[in-house]
Amino acid sequence: MSQGQLEPNTITFNAAISACEKGSAWKEGLQLFDVMVRSQVEADTITFNAAIRTCQKRGDWVTALVLFSAMEQSKVYSSMINLDVALGA
Asked: 32: Cβ–Cβ under 8 A, 6 or more apart, which residues?
């Protein structure tokens, strides 16, 4: 059997960012989000929610609102849940 490398995708990044959020590793979660964007992996609603929640847990509403704005600019579907998470930061 051939050994290959796992190519990061939206699902793997979402899982990693969500794990960081749940583990209160906000810095690492936001770094992963940055790597995801720079790698041109498409972010979705789950991605943005997880990243915004990392900001919420540390009370960083400025970064949360920047992420919410980026979500809107990238044409990712937003909802009242996203706004509530961003404003709750």
From this structure: 13, 16, 17, 20
Looking up tokens 């909802």 gives: 79
Cα separation, 54 vs 58, in Å, equals 7
Query: What residues contact 43, with CB distance under 8 A and at least 6 apart?
Result: 10, 13, 33, 36, 37, 71, 74, 76
| pLDDT tens, residue by residue, 28-60 | 999 999 999 999 999 998 999 899 888 888 888
pTM of this structure: 0.79
SS3 49: helix
Q: How crowded is residue 69: how many other Cβ atoms within 10 Å of its Cβ?
A: 11
Residue 17 tokens read as 């960012």
